[in-house]
């Protein structure tokens, strides 16, 4: 059911990755944390405040994750427009981002990214010619939380050059293996 009142697009008290992992614990399909939180999972501790939590799934698995996140409203986000996605509809092919609204709290909790890869292959959505075996691109914390490895996260962040992205890069660079620093 669609929310009756407009929701502030800045109302993002996002979940912690552990909360998302707990909610998705029964899902056997692949997913992983991306963005700034992925870097912090790799670092082993939170390095900065995060205004959101992003995770990625394969398009064909959208219904499985929608079912797992009960109590949420799903809204497509693209080109600065956020629109309600009816419960009986799949996201349009041009949409790769879904904001998940906690209906009870009336707050956005997680940003679901839809990626073009396969179970075995990770594909960079901005340049599909860039691909790698998924097992090379995703790692898991000791607590079992899957996350996109730093080289791929930094590749996404390079597009924006926002202050937080520059800070994330500066923190990650010294720890990246030399083989991952090459362009």
Q: What is the secondary structure topology, with strand pairs?
A:
Elements (H helix, E strand, L loop, with lengths): L16 H7 L7 E4 L1 H8 L10 E5 L3 H7 L3 E7 L2 E4 L12 E6 L4 E9 L5 E3 L7 E3 H4 E3 L5 E3 L1 H8 L5 H10 L5 H4 L2
Parallel strand pairs: 2-6
Antiparallel strand pairs: 1-2, 3-4, 3-5, 5-6, 7-8, 9-10
Protein name: Aminoglycoside-2''-adenylyltransferase
InterPro entries: Aminoglyc_AdlTrfase, NT_sf
Organism: Rhizobium favelukesii
Keywords:
six-stranded mixed β-sheet; 26% strand; 10 strands; 26% helix; 7 helices; alpha+beta; 183 residues; Beta Polymerase, domain 2; two-stranded antiparallel sheet
Describe this structure in words.
With 183 residues, the protein is of the alpha+beta class. Helices cover 26% and strands 26% of the residues. It has a single domain, classed as Beta Polymerase, domain 2 (2-Layer Sandwich). It has helices at residues 17-23, 36-43, 62-68, 134-137, 150-157, 163-172, 178-181; strands at 31-34, 54-58, 72-78, 81-84, 97-102, 107-115, 121-123, 131-133, 138-140, 146-148. The strands form 3 sheets. The chain has a 6-stranded mixed beta sheet with strand order 1-2-6-5-3-4. A two-stranded antiparallel ribbon has the order 7-8. Strands 9-10 form a two-stranded antiparallel sheet. The N and C termini lie far apart (46 Å). The model has no long low-confidence stretch (mean pLDDT 91). InterPro entries: Aminoglyc_AdlTrfase (IPR019646), NT_sf (IPR043519). This is Aminoglycoside-2''-adenylyltransferase.
Quick synopsis:
The chain is of the alpha+beta class and 183 residues long. It has 7 helices and 10 strands. It has helices spanning 17-23, 36-43, 62-68, 134-137, 150-157, 163-172, 178-181, and strands spanning 31-34, 54-58, 72-78, 81-84, 97-102, 107-115, 121-123, 131-133, 138-140, 146-148.
């Amino acid at each position: 059911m669609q929310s009756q009142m407009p929701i502030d697009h800045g109302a993002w008290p996002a979940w912690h990755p552990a909360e998302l992992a707990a909610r998705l614990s029964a899902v056997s399909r692949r997913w992983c944390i991306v963005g700034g939180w992925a870097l912090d999972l790799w670092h082993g501790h939170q390095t900065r405040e995060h205004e959101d939590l992003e995770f990625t799934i394969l398009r064909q698995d959208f219904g499985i994750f929608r079912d797992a996140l009960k109590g949420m409203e799903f809204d497509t986000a693209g080109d600065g427009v956020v629109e309600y996605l009816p419960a009986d509809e799949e996201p349009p092919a041009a949409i790769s981002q879904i904001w998940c609204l906690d209906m009870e709290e009336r707050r956005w909790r997680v940003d679901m990214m839809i990626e073009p890869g396969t179970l075995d292959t990770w594909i960079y959505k901005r340049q599909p010619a860039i691909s790698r075996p998924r097992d090379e691109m995703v790692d898991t914390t000791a607590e079992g939380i899957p996350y996109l490895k730093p080289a791929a996260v930094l590749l996404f962040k390079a597009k924006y050059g926002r202050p937080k992205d520059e800070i994330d890069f500066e923190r990650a660079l010294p720890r990246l293996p030399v083989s991952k620093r090459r362009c």
